[in-house]
Structure formats: structure tokens, C-alpha cells
Amino acid sequence: MSQPPYLDAAAIERLVPPARAVDLLEAALRDGLDPEAAPPRPSMPLPGGELLLMPASGGRYAGVKAVTVAPGNPARGLPRIQGAYLLFDGDTLAPLAVLDGLALTASRTPAVSALAARHLAAPDSRTLTVFGSGPQAWGHVRALRATHPLDEVTVVARNPVTAAALAGRCASLGLSAAVAGGREQAHRAVAEADIVACCTTSRQPLFPGALPRDGALVIAIGSHEPGAREVDDDLVVRSTVVVEARASALAEAGDVIIPVRHGTIPTGHIAGNLAELVGGAVQAGQGPRLFKGTGMAWQDLVVAAAAYEAWAQGRGYA
């Protein structure tokens, strides 16, 4: 028996570009995938951080992603999040492919956010403020550019070197790109943005919740811990809140859990999950819109299966 192929970062990007990933995720939800039925992901603490297992099955495939989160890695010049994905045939349960887990996460997470933006942000959204300068920040620029006519990006990040590098990459796409030089410029960028993408490891709110204007979309994807958040209670109260799934959000999303714990909002303040949003069941209010994602295993499976099928077809397989 031949060894399963290994699909690296370059292969995943080539086989499932951002616009394709967004469409695949939307199609899965329109075909009846229920995010609330997804199993919880087990987590195990390790001396260097955390190990997460994310299994999923559906259609012709099953798969599992093993992910490690090592907070000390950036200081070593290593990725904070690493991992691998193993894709199986749904009938025989034979292994079909191994995929770069970090690249898969860097593909599907921005695609999920862009899918939410497709239904929550104004169709003519042109200005993006992105917090963070790592792979997720870059991925969100690319994915959101695939769904909206973005022409201006402001980068807000603690590291001026990586912030400038990200701005340069944005400029290479033909975007007007700048780095916010301090808190005042960052706050102005949030207040003026059509879309704000929070892609950081911050455990505290990044900006005052009064800043985003009515109709603007804020995306918060940086954490999956009940005690960490990127947005404050004020923004959550003002916003139409959409999550990937209520069950996972109320278990892992500090951006939602903390306001509930404070008594600032009831759990019913969540306007809908991603399937309900795609299905047209979410009615946005007058204030900002907030999408909170923590990452779910079904998203990995959708993108991994598509990458494998594209690889197999390119080699004459069924």
C-alpha cells in the first residue's frame, strides 16, 4: 500500500485558494451541516502549552487535526500554533492524506470569517483594520479581499517590524496599506473601518467598544479560551452577535462568556450561529455586527477534503 500524500502549505494554498474555501464552507452549511452537532474538542495541558484534538466526519470523509499551542514559541522564532491533519476515507477508514495543520488552520479560519463577512458586512466594504501581524492577520486580508472590494488596510500590532512587513505584503496586492502609529491612530482606524479583524493572542480587549460605528463588522478569532477576549462588554452589548455554534461559543469564547458571566448580556443575546446566518435567519440590528470564532473541526474537514480531491484529480485519480 502506498503512503498517503503529504500536502504542505504551498499545496493547500494552491489547491484551495481563499475564495474557493469560502464557497466550500458556505455550501456545506447550505447542504445541511449543523455546527451545533459538532463534538467538543478534547484538550490536554502540556508543560509547554496545550494539545487539542479536533475530529470530524461527514460525507465521504473523516479526519482529525492534532494541534499544539505553545505560548513560548514566538520568542524562539517558532509558530505559536502547530499541528497535523489526517484525512480518512469515510467508508473504509483508510488514511488518504496528511496535511500541514498550521497551513490548514491558516486557510480555513480566515475563510470562515470571510463567510461571516459575506453576510454581515456591507457589500461595498472597502476599509479594513486588522489587529495582529501573523499568519491569521495576513490570511484575513486575503480572504476578506476575496469577498469584499477592499482597497485600504490599517495594521495595528505591537511589533513595528512585523507590522511594517504585513503592510508591505498588503501593498503588494495593490492595497493602500499603513501601520497605526500609537493608540490614537489605532482608535481612529477602528472608528473609520468598515471591517475590523482581531487576530491576536491578547487576553484583554483591544479597543473601546464604543468605537466601531453602526453597521461595521468586527471579527474576533484570536482566542478559544473562556478567560481571554479581544472585545469588551460594551461592544458585545451594542452588536448583533453571531458565533460559529452556540454550544462551542458558550464553552470556549471568552468574548461571549465573560459578558454573560458579568450579567451584561443573557445567552439569548447571541443572534445566531453560522448556519442560521447563511440561511438568512439572522436579522442585524442598528449597531455594529460581531462575529466570534474559535475554530471548529468540521471546517478543517471541508477544506482538507477539497484539497485532497483537487490533488487526486490533478493526478488522474477519481
UniProtKB/TrEMBL annotation:
It holds the Pfam family OCD_Mu_crystall. It comes from the Bacteria. This is Ornithine cyclodeaminase family protein.
